[in-house]
Write a structure and sequence with these properties.
Layout (H helix, E strand, L loop, with lengths): L6 H4 L4 E2 L4 H8 L16 H21 L2 E5 L7 H6 L4 H22 L4 E7 L13 H18 L3 E7 L2 H14 L3 E5 L13 H11 L4 E5 L3 H4 L12 E5 L7 H6 L8 H14 L5 E2 L7 H8 L11
Parallel strand pairs: 1-2, 1-8, 2-3, 3-4, 4-5, 5-6, 6-7, 7-8
Helix pairs in contact: 3-5, 3-12, 5-6, 6-7, 7-8
Length: 312
């Protein structure tokens, strides 16, 4: 696939993307994910099969909804710090990031969906809920290897998800520009609609627009009721395209302490997501994040959930 034609998203085309990969595999399917990382599954035959079944569920949703499909690589933890904890050196990490693109390409080929795009997922260097005081230059250098792996493997875009502060997001955008690949940035917010570093969502988007504009913006890993307070009617909301909500209304701190999955109230998820889309009217890439599975995403799209198959 060639680099994404940005008008595919900006012209109003609707796109299904996946749900809470790690929480779904861990809690619903009993698949062990050390360090909450899904990318090691690429090195295991059963793990790859589970990932392919997982992505097939979202292809079925896209087909039922008559929408496009964005397949995002299982690489949220596939950066050097987390990879080192899991025994991956730089060479192995490059290989597995490229392999992740190959896997979603295979899923795309099998999907039966006409319009499919491949997205290389970049996660935060540290914890997805804590702002550690990133430096934009250091972040660009840190994330550049993963972004280059994605670009050379042929992704249509890079998507930085669960960004907790603008500096790290700026670094990812700079890395993407250097690699010549389009880039989306999704921030996460706390229950009050502010980023973990205390900044507003509007302020974070404005900071990137002034320094290193992304092609698209979004929000992930937050319930719609947490995002709604951030929507102030400003023109910046027209830059929001991606939304991957959590199932639960719990705070990040509460979710971190949970030992069982909170699947949330699906009716509330759907109704509050509709309220959000009524205010951020150009949101067009809709999936899920922690606690969601294909049944939640199907509900967000108003279609029947696909049959879910356990690994094995």
């Amino acid at each position: 696939m060639n680099a994404m034609d940005q008008s595919d998203i900006l012209d109003g085309t609707q796109w299904v993307t996946d749900g809470g990969l790690e929480t779904d595999l861990l809690f619903n399917h009993g698949i062990d994910l050390p360090e909450f990382a899904s990318f090691p599954l690429l090195d295991d035959t059963d793990g790859r099969a589970a990932l392919m079944r997982y992505f097939a569920e979202y292809a079925a949703i896209a087909a039922a909804a008559g929408s496009g499909l964005i397949l995002e690589t299982p690489t949220w933890r596939a950066n050097p710090d987390w990879a080192t904890l899991l025994g991956y050196d730089a060479t192995a990490l490059d290989r597995v990031n490229r392999d992740a693109v190959g896997l979603v390409r295979s899923a795309a080929d099998r999907s039966g969906v006409e319009h499919v795009r491949l997205s290389g997922v970049v996660g935060p260097r540290g914890d997805g809920y804590i702002a550690a005081g990133a430096n934009a230059d250091a972040a660009a250098e840190y994330h550049s290897a993963q972004v280059r792996s994605f670009a050379e493997a042929g992704v249509d875009l890079v998507h930085a998800m669960t960004m907790t502060e603008s500096a790290e997001a700026i670094g990812v955008v700079r890395a993407a520009r250097a690699a010549g690949v389009p880039v989306a940035v999704s921030f996460t917010v706390e229950t009050d609609g502010r980023l973990p570093d205390g900044s507003t969502l509007a302020g974070a988007v404005d900071e990137l627009e002034a320094s290193a504009p992304a092609d698209w913006y979004g929000v992930n890993c937050a319930h719609p009721t947490h995002v709604l307070p951030a929507i102030d009617g400003g023109s910046w909301t027209d830059r929001l395209r991606f939304f991957r909500p959590n199932a639960s209304t719990m705070s990040h701190e509460e979710l971190d302490a949970m030992e069982v999955l909170d699947p949330g109230d699906v009716d509330l998820l759907v109704s509050s997501a509709a309220d959000l889309r009524g205010q951020a009217t150009l949101l067009s890439v809709i999936g899920g994040c922690c606690g969601t599975d294909s049944s939640h995403v199907a509900a967000l799209w108003g279609v029947h959930a696909p049959n879910r198959k356990l690994p094995g």
